[in-house]
């Protein structure tokens, strides 16, 4: 991967494979090849082995350690075909318990039309005995509500994308909208799974890299969907923006939703729904406020059958890492592991499992060109604040140095609303200055991404143009989104019947998509007053909504 850090490490090709999976990514732990999944430096590997069977179990590989602690990805050889092979082989296993698995397909609603969804029928193939696909539209917390009922419209967009990909009828079990990160919609998803699928067979999580699949796995692990003792035994998947972090199959046992358990769960949910924010503890309020900063839609994921441990971060528990927070990966004297709990034979002999799978790599994706530092700036981690600009013909809008839109021809001004990570700069200039701005400022602080100056731009693909013609439908409703690969998109709003000629650019080899109808058609209404002497409007952040608390009447 580009820009990944190189950590000095010693390999020992003569050491036998461990047969133990990394608790972060699921790859087999080994010290023979530092470029392959599951690598642990030889000294560390031997010291963990010397502690007996529990030594390696629960440890993470060097790559997961680097991701969890530094957000850095070590160089790794894993071709896209290998991702598909692992997923495909898993899905073609003979049905257990006489029934094929349920597939939970996770897509990022901001990435619609999802580039991997059309590949799903081919990945399944006629010989995969799947019982159906439940599609989960994730990351809805990042999108501002442009009008009442925006979630219903988003759900329709996801369902339409499924139909275009050939998923319809009995094959499509349901479409749910959630935020795996803030918990919004997760209790509803658990209830839906327990009501319809019960404990009939295994469940596989599928999805493109960066769809939030591993975060969903981690959230389900801490919910009523998982056997009550399992979260204490099973470590969470590595949650990181770096594409393809789940390398092999991680799993947890699904709880059997008996009538008694469903009744107790419903009682808990009813009781929680009577609470207001004022009745929460100081810790709960602090956590809730943190989630509100991260997303517009927030929910709490509770446990009915076990006392939930308070957690204020969706992240790795450092105690579960093979390397402690202050320990160097090459330290020869690891801290002693505590004795770890294990499942009993009876707990898992007839268990149904929820499997996480490797993220399917998106081709023609901008993220494949970026370093881990750049990816952290490009992928939104907090609620997106829309930025609207009014442009006349002859004006140009830059989204960092990753995308550009030229307004070439039109009779009247038009509105361009940017929906992208709040960390990415937007710059408006004239057509006559645009090329000079890009040449001088690309990879500099002014345009921010890519980063690294002239040397970085020597290897970065040039921007390539695509002409787009749009016809306005009115000053309150966008006609289309121009999606600049995974950098974000620009919703274009123009006067009724007004014809616009635009030229949009993305880096060579990445996908530029004109999305009609737009995802948030009324987004230009979410803006403040015009900033005098500029084409920009003041930004306006809509309030957050908490789903399973009683409203006190305030936003």
Automatic annotation (TrEMBL):
Residues 259-286 form a coiled coil. The keyword Coiled coil applies. Transmembrane segments: none annotated. CDD domains: YqeH (cd01855). SUPFAM superfamilies: P-loop containing nucleoside triphosphate hydrolases. Keywords: Coiled coil. Residues 203-253 form the G domain. Residues 416-516 form the NOA1/YqeH-like C-terminal domain. The keyword Ubl conjugation does not apply. GO terms for molecular function: GTP binding. This is NOA1 protein. It comes from Acrocephalus arundinaceus (Great reed-warbler). The lineage of its organism: Eukaryota, Metazoa, Chordata, Craniata, Vertebrata.
């Amino acid at each position: 991967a580009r820009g990944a850090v190189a950590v000095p490490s010693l390999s020992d090709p003569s050491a036998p494979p461990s047969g133990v999976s990394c608790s972060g990514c699921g790859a087999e732990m080994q010290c023979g090849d530092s470029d392959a999944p599951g690598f642990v430096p030889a000294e560390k590997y031997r010291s963990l082995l010397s502690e007996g069977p529990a030594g390696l179990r629960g440890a993470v590989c060097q790559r997961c350690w680097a991701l969890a602690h530094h957000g850095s990805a070590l160089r790794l050889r894993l071709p896209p075909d290998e991702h598909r092979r692992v997923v495909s082989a898993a899905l073609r296993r003979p049905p257990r318990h006489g029934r094929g698995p349920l597939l939970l397909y996770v897509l990022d609603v901001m990435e619609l039309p999802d580039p991997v969804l059309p590949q799903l029928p081919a990945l399944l193939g006629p010989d995969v005995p799947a019982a159906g696909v439940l599609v989960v539209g994730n990351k809805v917390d990042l999108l501002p509500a442009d009008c009442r009922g925006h979630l219903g419209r988003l759900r329709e967009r996801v369902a339409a994308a499924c139909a275009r990909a050939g998923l319809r009828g009995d094959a499509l079990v349901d479409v749910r909208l959630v935020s795996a990160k803030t918990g919004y919609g997760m209790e509803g998803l658990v209830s839906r799974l327990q009501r319809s699928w019960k404990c009939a067979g295994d469940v596989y999580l599928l999805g493109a890299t960066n769809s939030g699949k591993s975060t969903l796995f981690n959230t389900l692990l801490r919910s009523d969907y998982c056997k009550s003792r399992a979260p204490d035994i099973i470590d969470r998947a590595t949650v990181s923006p770096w594409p393809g972090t789940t390398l092999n199959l991680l799993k947890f046992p699904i709880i059997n939703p008996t009538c008694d358990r469903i009744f107790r769960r419903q009682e808990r949910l009813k009781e929680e729904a009577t609470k207001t924010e004022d009745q929460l503890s100081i810790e709960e309020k602090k956590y809730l406020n943190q989630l509100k900063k991260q997303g517009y839609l927030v929910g709490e994921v509770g446990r009915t059958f076990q006392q939930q441990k308070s957690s204020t971060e969706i992240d790795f528990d450092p105690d579960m890492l093979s390397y402690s927070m202050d320990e160097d990966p090459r330290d020869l004297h690891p801290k002693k592991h505590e004795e770890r709990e294990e499942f009993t034979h009876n707990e898992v002999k007839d268990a149904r499992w929820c499997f996480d799978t490797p993220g399917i790599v998106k081709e023609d994706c901008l993220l494949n060109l970026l370093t881990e530092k750049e990816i952290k700036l490009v992928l939104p981690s907090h609620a997106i604040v829309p930025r609207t600009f009014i442009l006349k013909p002859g004006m140009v809008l830059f989204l960092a140095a990753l995308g550009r839109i030229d307004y070439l021809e039109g009779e009247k001004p038009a509105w361009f609303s940017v929906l992208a990570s709040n960390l990415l700069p937007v710059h408006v200039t004239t057509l006559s200055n645009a090329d000079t701005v890009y040449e001088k400022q690309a990879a500099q602080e002014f345009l921010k991404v890519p980063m690294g100056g002239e040397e970085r731009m020597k290897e970065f693909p040039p921007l390539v143009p695509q002409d787009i013609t749009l016809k306005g439908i009115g000053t309150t409703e966008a006609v289309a989104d121009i999606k600049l690969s995974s950098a974000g998109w620009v919703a274009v709003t123009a006067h009724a019947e007004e014809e616009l000629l635009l030229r949009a650019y993305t880096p060579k080899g990445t996908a530029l998509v004109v999305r009609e109808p737009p995802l948030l058609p009324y987004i230009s209404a979410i803006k403040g007053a015009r900033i005098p002497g500029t084409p920009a409007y003041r930004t306006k952040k809509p309030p957050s909504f908490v789903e399973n608390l009683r409203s006190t009447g305030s936003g």
